[in-house]
Amino acid sequence: MNKNFDAKTLILVLENGIDNKGNPVYTRKSIKNIREEASVEDIYNVGQALAKLFKNPIVNICVDEDYILIAS
């Protein structure tokens, strides 16, 4: 089994208020087409820089990597 890189996405998870039970509500903002060679540190730094553009606080900065699996 082999895998080939397909896509990388930066995901910002923002706190977006509280529901009627007092639990936090979250919103996700995705930035697609991140280069495969982008380091985790670079992606995190971009997420931190983008956090300043939102009025709601960033709860998590995530990265999603997709691969296509190919039978050998």
Structural descriptors:
single chain; alpha+beta; 1 helix; 17% helix
Helix % is 10-25%
What portion of the residues fall into strands of 2 or more residues?
A: over 45%
Strand order of the largest sheet: 2-1-3
Task: Give start-end ranges of low-pLDDT stretches.
Answer: none
Number of strands: 3
Distance N terminus to C terminus? 5 Å
The largest β sheet comes out as: 3 strands, antiparallel
Helix and strand pattern:
EEHE
Q: So how many helices?
A: 1
In round numbers, the mean pLDDT is 95
The radius of gyration over CA amounts to 15 Å
Shape: elongated
Structural class, from helix and strand content? alpha+beta
Structural overview:
With 72 residues, the chain is α+β, with helices and mostly antiparallel strands. It has one helix and three strands. The chain has one helix spanning 40-51, and strands at residues 2-18, 24-31, 58-70. The protein has a three-stranded antiparallel sheet, with helices on one face. Strand 1 (2-18) and strand 2 (24-31) form a beta hairpin. It is elongated. The relative contact order is 0.39.
